[in-house]
Amino acid sequence: MIRTRFAPSPTGNMHIGNLRSALFAYLIAKHYEGEFILRLEDTDQNRYELGAEEFIYKVLELFGLEYDEGPNKNEKYGPYVQSERLDIYKKYAEYLIREGYAYYCFCNQTEINEERMKAEEENRTFLYPGTCRDLPLDEVKKRIANGEKYVIRQKIPKEGTTSYRDLVYGDIRVENSNLEDNILIKSNGYPTYNFANVVDDALMNITHVTRGNEYLSSTPKYVLLYDALRFDTPKFIHLPLLIKKDGSKISKRNKEDNLLQLIHDGFLPSAILNYIALLGWSPKTNQEFFTLEELIENFDISGIQKNPAVYDIQKLKWFNHHYIIKMSDSDYLEYIRPFLEKVYDLENREKYWIDTLLLSYKNHLSFGKEIVLFTHLFFQKEIEFDENAILYIKKNGLNPSFLEIYKTEFSKINNWQISFIQQTLDIIEKRTQLAKERLYMELRILLSGTMHGIDLATLIYLLGKKVIIIRLEEQL
Ligand code: GLU
Question: Residue 400 is part of which domain span?
Answer without folding.
Answer: 387-475
